[in-house]
Design a protein that fits this description.
Order of helices and strands: HHHHHHH
Helix content: 55-70%
Oligomer: single chain
Strand content: under 5%
Number of strands: 0
Length: 157
């Protein structure tokens, strides 16, 4: 796949990406485990079909110690026994937040209540911000057709 334009050569895109990335870094300062945030990014990227982000976040998660089994099971998290109840709640929130247009009322109350059983208000803000940020990145990459496969773990750290 050839990208529609080179995002990394665009001054406007570089400014935008830096702001998105800075917003995303704030979530890492909360008590939500980094592994959970990566799982959320992976699940949203799967739903959105963003190969660039899947390449990045699966490699970063693996480099941080995430197991291959768990990475392979993210798409089938409901049936997989390798995720905690808190991770399941975060993955469900990620799915509903990513597919927000599919539900007339947005994220269902029961999904929110389940997440709130496992995460405090600051952690919920971090999860929602992570979901919003990864969806924005997914849309940039999918629309511009950024190719996947060449990411090196930590490349944009």
């Amino acid at each position: 796949m050839e990208p529609r334009l080179n995002l990394f050569a665009s001054p406007t895109a570089n400014k935008l990406i830096k702001h998105f990335a800075a917003a995303g870094k704030a979530t890492q300062e909360t008590s939500v485990p980094d592994s959970t945030l990566e799982l959320v990014k992976i699940r949203a990227s799967q739903i959105n079909g963003c190969g660039f982000c899947l390449d990045m976040h699966t490699k970063d998660a693996a480099a941080a110690g995430e197991t291959q089994q768990r990475l392979h099971m993210v798409g089938a998290w409901r049936e997989a026994t390798v995720f905690t109840e808190a991770e399941r709640a975060a993955l469900e929130l990620a799915e509903q937040g990513t597919r927000i247009a599919d539900a007339a009322g947005g994220v269902p109350d029961e999904v929110w209540a389940n997440a709130a059983k496992h995460y405090d208000s600051e952690e919920l803000v971090a999860l929602v911000a992570t979901i919003a940020a990864i969806n924005a990145f997914n849309r940039l990459n999918v629309i511009f057709q950024q190719p996947a496969g060449g990411y090196r773990p930590g490349q944009f750290a």
